[in-house]
Amino acid sequence: xxxxxxxxxxxxxxxxxxxxxxxxxxxxxxxxxxxxxxxxxxxxxxxxxxxxxxxxxxxxxxxxxxxxxxxxxxxxxxxxxxxxxxxxxxxxxxxxxxxxxxxxxxxxxxxxxxxxxxxxxxxxxxxxxxxxxxxxxxxxxxxxxxxxxxxxxxxxxxxxxxxxxxxxxxxxxxxxxxxxxxxxxxxxxxxxxxxxxxxxxxxxxxxxxxxxxxxxxxxxxxxxxxxxxxxxxxxxxxxxxxxxxxxxxxxxxxxxxxxxxxxxxxxxxxxxxxxxxxxxxxxxxxxxxxxxxxxxxxxxxxxxxxxxxxxxxxxxxxxxxxxxxxxxxxxxxxxxxxxxxxxxxxxxxxxxxxxxxxxxxxxxxxxxxxxxxxxxxxxxxxxxxxxxxxxxxxxxxxxxxxxxxxxxxxxxxxxxxxxxxxxxxxxxxxxxxxxxxxxxxxxxxxxxxxxxxxxxxxxxxxxxxxxxxxxxxxxxxx
Length: 478
Fold this sequence. Notes:
The chain is α/β, with parallel strands linked by helices.
């Protein structure tokens, strides 16, 4: 693919770049212009990609750890050297403001670097078999081995870093991969494949196919040659995948409607700008975006005033402009849906503090008050630049309200009272509780994942490697 014009992308199967009989258009989400065309994989192409991954697995799984490290490290260096160009591509195909696209590139570089490091750390342990009478005279140890072919299905909102969180650990562990990126944002994933090809990854180890979930995703998930499915997306699709996957290992990173609590002792100078970014970065299209904001009555007036002022100051426009905070949502239909939720909430008694306006794909950052728990803006995942402020009187009440959700990905608590912090940690059923930060905090080597409808398993490079390996027990009787 090296030297190929941006308007003529191809699929990557078994180390070769392939066209197809059907192509789809990838558009600039702000201008609507065509960025590129990409072939749509049919069932036969998916089968060949899986076959290539399966054929490459025996040799790649035995590739020494230092060689897997070298490939990942070389790819990391190439990503770092090209991050400005790649960030501009993300800004166009995802509608993500350039400063956030650059932040995603920097995180992706770090994710691949963590993966390179982790390739050298995969190990096992000895087992004292003679702790059992039946184990006398025997030596025991276990090792971690790669599971096989990984089917990776990724979303549009972090089209490189969420791919990196699947590809990096899989390659570090010795697995081979078939990747289906989101059809709205496939270009950066294909550029990633080009970089890994340049870094020396053997043919068949990484394959990238693009197309609808009903054709490409379902076929990948159901194929018996696939040993693990790693999916990031919505709970209904995740549940459908689990039903189709059968006896495979699965990791599911699903939805959330994240809550954050602001206590009276919170540092508002720190909390306000952080919560604004947490609610509206990437137009709220982040699994851990701040959607429900619980503010103690003693600071509610001051916090709300500052929060609304800061929200109104956000700049809306073309993502390629360096000072833009809010760009378009991924599809106009999603902006229309979120706008309808806002109107419905207002009709049910909510107060619009700012925003609520839509221009095509762009939904202006919106703050609501006087909401109730049954409103869609509160009880479902908005995945839009939309946050609701709720006033509370007691910390116990706020913790209960944050936890009163079918989701459980992450939550945030602003307080300097250590007892309150541990009270919340103990009672909020979520994959992560962030103290003196919002729900949106994540670094790429920490365990990341949710409880309840928010998912199964954990990502974060070391933890994803565990998910992509299995334990082999060895006993030796001298």
